[in-house]
Amino acid sequence: MANIIDFLLSQVVRIIVKNAPDLETLVINDRSLKCELDYYVNFEEEYGKDTLEEISKLRNLKKLCIHSCLINYSDLLKLCKKLPALEYLDVIFLQNYNCLTFGYEEMTRETFGNLKVFLFDGFGSDSFIMDLSEFCIENLPKLEIVQRRVDHYMYFTMHIAKYIDLNLNCESSPLQHLCTEPLDKSLHLLFPKLTHLQVNLANEFFSESEKASVMNFSGIEYLCISRCCSSLDIVDRLLDTYGPNLKSLEFSESFCSIKLETIFEKCPNLEKLSLHCVEVTDEDKPISNFSNLKELVWIRDQYDEPAVLSNILSAPNLEKISLEGSKFDASDLKKVADLIAKKQILRHLKSFHHVNVNEYVLTRSKSKFVKALTSLIKNATTFIPNFTDVEIDINFKRFCFKRFSFHLSSDYL
What we know:
single chain, 413 residues, alpha/beta, Leucine-rich repeat, LRR (right-handed beta-alpha superhelix), 3 domains, six-stranded parallel beta sheet, 18 strands, F-box domain-containing protein, LRR_dom_sf
């Protein structure tokens, strides 16, 4: 089976290259390979090498994304050396050793010197990922994003490089995305063009100079506060500093307490709010100000008590809602459904997802939650004019054992 997939991929790429030799963007992202077959194409195999050879002929290629294939760092260097126009690269590494110790430093500088975006993950060692991130920041003069976009992959924990010993080849870096922890370093001078910042607060104790290191950027539009385990004063300071200009705010794996009213007061221009394992203490209270909220992502622990949604869903500009984990209060969902039918809320809603939910009932017909959610979706499809995207995924269980699932997607409507 593996050889067949490798062969078919090489043939598809050969056809693409033959018919579109001036192609500027190529994305190999067959999710069926990863999700259904749990298989990655290996470029070290015979047909994998054929695929690389075909890709190397695309001399005008500016963006290359390979998500369903594994590639060695050395093979990637050889490929990209033949792609002089490349500016955007996204790959998954195969090797489990640090190639930077094998004399590839100069070749990396020459081959990737034109890159603005270099995204990578892999099955290799963490030290290689961290070392490569630092090396690229230090040596690639045009690099704006390295390793991962900090505003993607909520479940993905970036490898945090230690910028204390960073030695740039120029006065400052053009980097726009940065994941860091508070450090005793003038980070704003190293990265003056930063727009996206992720601050890791796993260590609850920081000196004043360390706190100040993440407070002095001038152009932050996206802020992610991650691994915050208590209500630290640094969170309030971050919101006071960056809140007025924030377009997107995320709490990722932050087991702390927040108030929605406070967030909207401090972030008047907020368009997207993402909450992951955060205790919202005022969910059941009316909200007077919603900023410019257009998108809500709320991921909760499976064992959390049902939460109230109707207040935050009253935000007048909401277009996209993504919920995951613990159920939301059934009676409150029914209230949301009724308000939709009366055309009082969610008039601009386009997308509603509620996935990875566990429901412990003997039969689906006895679930008040499912009845309320069904009513909400039914009313949304009837009364909201631009509502086109829905996904519901519920696992029905008895005790700890999964009995059956219910899945609804707009693909089947």
